[in-house]
Design brief:
By secondary structure, the chain is α/β, with parallel strands linked by helices. The chain has a single domain, classed as Rossmann fold, CATH 3.40.50.720. 32% of the residues lie in helices and 22% in strands. The protein contains three helices and four strands; from the N terminus they run βαβαβαβ. The longest helix has 12 residues, at 11-22. The radius of gyration is 12 Å and the shape is globular. The structure holds NADP nicotinamide-adenine-dinucleotide phosphate (NAP). Residues 6-7, 9-13, 32-33, 36, 57-59, 83-89 line the site of NADP nicotinamide-adenine-dinucleotide phosphate (NAP).
């Protein structure tokens, strides 16, 4: 399945992304920090061919993504996990 995840640079989201990749899914990861995306890609490097990073911010209209990006995702995503949050457990 094609799965979109918010918060993949966080504690829960990273674990979820790894699990879904191990199961063979293709991931679209909305991230607001390129530096954190680079670190995450290092951690998940063996799955890099099934990871697409999308730059986005939750508080922006359309998550800060362009109309073109939104259009390209329309009808392409099978499931969404929304794990992004202000909450910090650590
Ligand atoms: N940790 C647990 O054991 C646990 C257990 C049960 C439920 N939960 C729930 O799971 C959720 C996430 O917890 P967590 O521990 O994974 O938190 P976390 O480590 O603080 O991760 C939060 C994630 O949300 C992203 N984020 C926050 N604001 C954003 C915004 N405006 N736009 C885009 N991304 C944004 C962060 O991005 P940056 O990396 O760029 O900051 C990060 O990827 C919370 O609702 C928590 O209550 C957590």
């Amino acid at each position: 399945m094609r799965v979109l995840i918010t918060g993949s640079t966080g504690f829960l989201g990273e674990k979820l992304a790894r699990k879904l990749l191990e199961e063979g899914h293709e991931l679209y990861l909305i991230v607001r920090s390129q530096a954190k995306a680079d670190i995450l890609l290092d951690q998940l490097y063996s799955y890099k061919n099934r990871i697409t990073f999308l730059s986005g911010h939750l508080s922006d209209k359309n998550l800060g993504m362009s109309d073109e990006t939104i259009q390209s995702l329309t009808n392409q995503i099978d499931a969404i996990y929304h794990t992004a949050a202000l909450f910090k457990l650590r």
